[in-house]
Amino acid sequence: MKAELVAQPSKYGSLWPLPQKVQLSEVSFKLTSSSFRIVDAKDSTAGPSCSLLQDAYRRYYEYMFGIAKRQQLNKGRRTGPSELTELQVWITSPDSECDSYPSLTSDESYELSVNQPYAVLKAPKVWGALHGSKTFLSCIVIFNFIYCLIVLLSSFIQETMAMNKINVFHWHIVDDQSFPYLSRTFPQLSQQGAYHPYTHVYTPADVKMVIEFARLRGIRVIPEFDTPGHTQSWGKGQPDLLTPCYSGSKPSGTFGPVNPILNTTYDFMSQFFKEISAVFPDAYVHLGGDEVDFTCWKSNPDIQKFMDQQGFGQDYSKLESFYIQKLLDIVTTTEKGYTIWQEVFDNGVKLKPDTVVHVWIGGGSNEEMGKVTAAGYTTILSAPWYLDYISYAQDWQKYYKVEPLNFNGTEAQKKLVIGGEACLWGEYVDATNLTPRLWPRASAVAERLWSAKDVTDINDAFSRLSVHRCRMVDRGIPAEPLFSSYCPHEYKGI
Amino acid sequence: MKAELVAQPSKYGSLWPLPQKVQLSEVSFKLTSSSFRIVDAKDSTAGPSCSLLQDAYRRYYEYMFGIAKRQQLNKGRRTGPSELTELQVWITSPDSECDSYPSLTSDESYELSVNQPYAVLKAPKVWGALHGSKTFLSCIVIFNFIYCLIVLLSSFIQETMAMNKINVFHWHIVDDQSFPYLSRTFPQLSQQGAYHPYTHVYTPADVKMVIEFARLRGIRVIPEFDTPGHTQSWGKGQPDLLTPCYSGSKPSGTFGPVNPILNTTYDFMSQFFKEISAVFPDAYVHLGGDEVDFTCWKSNPDIQKFMDQQGFGQDYSKLESFYIQKLLDIVTTTEKGYTIWQEVFDNGVKLKPDTVVHVWIGGGSNEEMGKVTAAGYTTILSAPWYLDYISYAQDWQKYYKVEPLNFNGTEAQKKLVIGGEACLWGEYVDATNLTPRLWPRASAVAERLWSAKDVTDINDAFSRLSVHRCRMVDRGIPAEPLFSSYCPHEYKGI
């Protein structure tokens, strides 16, 4: 075994991801489960009726003192640091947004001050309060053996967050292999197209629960229904949706992408996306559009005839654009915004100005980011963060070192980069290995996107991330190790 | 997502690894939990007093009908395949070896015949019976929806096994980072050298349980105590064991490999390996000997003086050999055989003829295998099977395609290759990700080593391994997927 980074304690303790601004002091406080409370501040616009916050308080309290119990650190001595007895949560704007969904334009900023005997967490909306509470939790030292739980960095910690990133769950919910989404309008899609119609589907209740679970944590859910490619599973329950491929002059029995020349296709898409727009509250839907293989379209004589009629010649990307254009018009009528994979932009499809272009090809993708933003589109970067591409050793460092704005472009162009996304595709991943493959590698992406541009000290990151990883393990989440090391409490799963 | 291999059902059903010889027929049988029994054959030399077998019967029965219960397949119709009511286990040699430990020379062969109404499993020793029972289990079709559990390949299945491979647990129990082995003779080694002296150690009782757990499954346990390198953790609890490194004319405060010039070193090793030889019943111990860094030895003036006295000049590999030679002599007095990493052979250390040389450097290692066997040593091959080197996609195929005897050498040399070993080093692996990283990638190695040389059909292997992997998932083992697919019962862990 060879040594790599050495985990010297960070002056930021176990904070992860590092807030945009942190002010440290030497003073520390004690927390005791019997006296510590998370409460609504007197002037908060979100009171006891805001179940989102009340739910979060319970969750965080259990997490804080659950750890204390397991570590048996709660039998504090009588002397020592003075006590912190309250975290006051103060929602400052008239509408706390307690009962809404987080959105692209949500104000997620907060400011956390830790001062004896109170800590005060000020946020305009509940979303900032959720993030700020997590920061409070990640201040807590779980390795201290003397005094229970101690706020490490205090006196006056002030933080403001403007950008908030790992706050969207992009749910790539169907693909070639399986259609697990149970559609009320077209139940045969999952009945025929899922791996199994009962055991391997997402029912409407499942989907609702995922969305509510996410909302309570300030997370948006954006579903992806990828067309016209990657739709093999759609064809099983929806006859005539896919293009019949030909072998010579006869249908071969196999099918290609969505058939773009039939009116029935667009009738189906209209009804389908009407349902989707109702089921998923987020203002955006991801429409896919990646990796369309033209082989089958080329083989089909009806498609060829249509190409001639439209004057597309042999340029099948024009046919793809034709389809996408009509799909975008359909989705526009549902009053949703849309995100599309970069190929749709690359192929010159006319897009609404507020379309989000998702860049995924080429690890660096500097050139593509320049092009997309020069055309005035907002964009999300995923290209450097395909977590399914595993490799030996500490590849989290590779993700961490990416600077997403490192492309040729004006300041205005850089402002169009609204976020980044870590992708974990499912070819080689399921419930057996998802969690250790995702964490803490995704955590590295989180800090890159969440923290200030100058937070680049890899040794400091290693130290904090090691502790953060043990915090996850302690909560029963099998986050894999960064390097040979140990946690005070190891994962007890199989 | 892109398709790779397509899982066409194999004519061998879900057998994994494929036995050396299989004879198929079209007839299949039904098994019912209420009537099926695993029993000792009338003439078996191992009766009810052989707790190893009785324990195995219970385990296998629970496994067989546990699956049936979960799948609710046990409410058989009245008509259909005829019933198989017994598996008779017949130990044929006078000494069943029920109460011994498996060893390098154990007879692990067996012959399994499935004929209505009995299946008969004949084996000279209990070890073959354990392997044969697993074969019986892996005949069982878990996906059949009509008839409970059916022996798929039957009438007369006959198998013989001569080589048996994944039947050794090589326990690399200490390393630079930590010394978790709690030694009765030198308790300070783990007291000072483990990550934590109570929560991160293997007590004598733990070690005993591991060995007994393995024995009951026909698995040998060979511990590795690697010296003179990789011993940083040893130095914490055993002063003067390691070489003090110098910075100029003064000790730098850091330490290098075991100090080979002190008599106290060899006194310590004598006592230590005397304990090890008593604690671990296997006839072999792994002595390591890999990756010795000479930098510290070179810096130390006492070592330099010793080198001069011995006439070693500046050849520090001679010093390494000097140490290893003395260590081998010590271990020889404990009447254990030893395995060493290939560097010890490469450095020309004089070895006993029955030494096992463990080849690990260079993915292919053809040349090294040729050299080691030409020198007349038995050898174990690990070089192509370092499972900690992960990569994207189906790397199990790479492991599967290796032919371990594909090196230049005589037939006599090939016979010296007594096995192969899949290694999973711990730099990036712990309880959070061990299981999905190990399985089914190690299963691929198992079949390569277990089955006949001509078992090389990768599509057939993909099909059988996919089912075998679901069998593991069904038993609660989070074995990762080969490719996007599903199991009837998915892993329910976190």
Automatic annotation (TrEMBL), chains A, B:
Q: Which residues form the active site?
A: 291
Residue ranges crossing the lipid bilayer per the database entry: 135-157
What GO biological process terms does the UniProt entry carry, in alphabetical order?
carbohydrate metabolic process; ganglioside catabolic process; glycosaminoglycan metabolic process
Q: Which cysteine pairs are joined by S-S bonds? A: 50-98, 245-296, 470-487
Q: Where in the cell is it found?
A: Cytoplasmic vesicle, Secretory vesicle, Cortical granule; Lysosome
Any keyword Signal?
A: yes
Main location, first listed in the record: cytoplasm
Provide the Glycoside hydrolase family 20 catalytic domain boundaries: 159-452
Per the record, what are the reactions this protein catalyses? a ganglioside GM2 (d18:1(4E)) + H2O = a ganglioside GM3 (d18:1(4E)) + N-acetyl-beta-D-galactosamine; Hydrolysis of terminal non-reducing N-acetyl-D-hexosamine residues in N-acetyl-beta-D-hexosaminides; N-acetyl-beta-D-galactosaminyl-(1->4)-beta-D-3-sulfogalactosyl-(1->4)-beta-D-glucosyl-(1<->1')-ceramide + H2O = a beta-D-3-sulfogalactosyl-(1->4)-beta-D-glucosyl-(1<->1')-ceramide + N-acetyl-beta-D-galactosamine; a ganglioside GM2 + H2O = a ganglioside GM3 + N-acetyl-beta-D-galactosamine
Provide an example Pfam family for this protein. Glycohydro_20b2
What are the record's GO terms for cellular component? cortical granule; lysosome; membrane
Function text: Hydrolyzes the non-reducing end N-acetyl-D-hexosamine and/or sulfated N-acetyl-D-hexosamine of glycoconjugates, such as the oligosaccharide moieties from proteins and neutral glycolipids, or from certain mucopolysaccharides. The isozyme B does not hydrolyze each of these substrates, however hydrolyzes efficiently neutral oligosaccharide. Only the isozyme A is responsible for the degradation of GM2 gangliosides in the presence of GM2A. During fertilization is responsible, at least in part, for the zona block to polyspermy.
Similarity comment: Belongs to the glycosyl hydrolase 20 family.
* Protein name per UniProt: Beta-hexosaminidase
